[in-house]
Amino acid sequence: MLRFGLTLALVLSAVPALANDSIAELGTGGLILSRSDAVAMQSEDLFISPEKVTVDYAFHNNTDKDVDAIVAFPMPDISGDPEEMPAIPENQSDNFLGFEVTIDGAPAKPQLEQKAFALGIDISADLKAHNVPFNPFGDAAKAALAKLPQAVTEDWMNRGIIIEDTALDSNGQIAGYAPYWQLRSTYWWRSIFPANKDVRVSHRYKPSVGGTSSVSFFNEGQFQGSYAAYKTRYCMDATLENAVRKAAKDNPDGYPKFYENRIAYILTTGGNWATGSIGKFKLTVDKGNPKALVSFCGDNVKKVGPTSFEMTADDFYPDHDIDILILNPSDSNTGDAN
Q1: pTM for the complete prediction?
Q2: 69-73, 165-169, 219-223, 231-235: segment of lowest average pLDDT
Q3: Which residues contact 33 (CB under 8 A, 6 or more apart)?
Q4: Which residues on adjacent β-strands are paired with residue 105?
Q5: What residue spans in the chain does CATH classification 2.60.40.3680 cover?
Q6: DSSP string of 64-103, one letter each residue
Q7: CATH class of 22-123+181-329
Q8: How many alpha carbons lie under 13 Å from residue 280 in its C-beta half-sphere?
Q9: pLDDT tens, 299-330?
């Protein structure tokens, strides 16, 4: 697939400036079906912005018999390492992406399956036995750890389930213990695909938007550091690079006044339908503030309105994921990027 960079403008007013150096984005994708040679994906309409991701599917059962299939939405894994800083939209909830789904316009109630792992070993039963919530970033989990018997605490420390909390209390002592396990979450439901009929499934969630408080690939007047990796991953083009150079030149301190935001969408996990390809695929990236830059890889991307850019393809086979880099001005006086 031919890949090229696209420099656009994106609305980022809802994304705050980052006080910390870097926050990691969590790659999230779409729906996965149990393997079926009967159900085809006629179309997928994907919309991505820093505020929301929406995906509309049209499936068609090509046979004369109803198909009973499992449909799943894998949530990104979360690792409870206090040294890491993943971007979690709703970190106190098991539904930490605010996932919602409708089938033919009616709200569905998918089941949530969650498991916890430490050193690759399923420790879900251990957490349940001591009433410890699975979400490693939830306040409830940390509070539950403080109530564990000392023998259990020592055992879990030895097994890599928890670690000492790096935060200190008012006396300068370790305040307690922090989760160190990995959480795997999947929403799933059974869906009937009637014979020779279409089924329309739509879902939405809040994306995990990673960020860095500055431009990580430009320093001391030149592109360096992660530049080569970024150029490959985000298809950065000359327009974006020239804008970064100009922003650095215009700043007396010599660095470009941008902070990074990153969105990762996993497009390659699907394909368990009749043809393996998507009949009609459409990707829309939200456009906004002309002072922000964005770069991502795509084919024949076109501006279709004042706030939207679109890529379409027929018989589309998803052979790579979608990574979006946003450079948002940290100085409101920065001039237009275009």
Answers
A1: 0.84
A2: 165-169
A3: 39, 69, 70, 71, 72, 270, 272, 273
A4: none
A5: 22-123+181-329
A6: SS-EEEEEEEEPPPEE--TT--B--TTTTSSSTT--EEEE
A7: mainly beta
A8: 9
A9: 888 877 666 788 999 999 888 899 999 898 88
At position 60, the amino acid (one-letter code) is H
* Strand pairing report for 67-74 and 182-193: antiparallel
Give the single-character DSSP code of 289: -
Task: Evaluate whether 70 touches 36 at the Cβ level (below 8 Å).
Answer: no
Q: Which residue, chain included where needed, has tokens 């979006």? A: 324
| Parallel/antiparallel/unpaired status of strands 67-74 and 32-33 | antiparallel
Q: Encode 230-249 in three state secondary structure.
A: HHHHHCCCHHHHHHHHHHHH
Sign of CA dihedral 314, 53, 83, 225: positive
**C-beta pairs of 231-236 under 8 Å, 24+ apart in sequence:** 233/297, 233/323, 233/325, 234/5, 234/295, 234/296, 234/297, 234/323, 234/324, 234/325, 235/3, 235/4, 235/5, 235/6, 235/295, 235/296, 235/297, 235/298, 236/5, 236/295, 236/325
Q: List pLDDT tens digits, range 21-75.
A: 577 788 888 888 887 788 989 999 999 999 999 999 999 999 999 999 999 999 9
List, in order, residues 6 or more apart from 300 with CB less than 8 Å away: 311, 312
d(CA 126, CA 145): 12
Task: Give the Cβ contact number of residue 179 at 10 Å.
Answer: 30
Token representation of residue 193: 């695909």
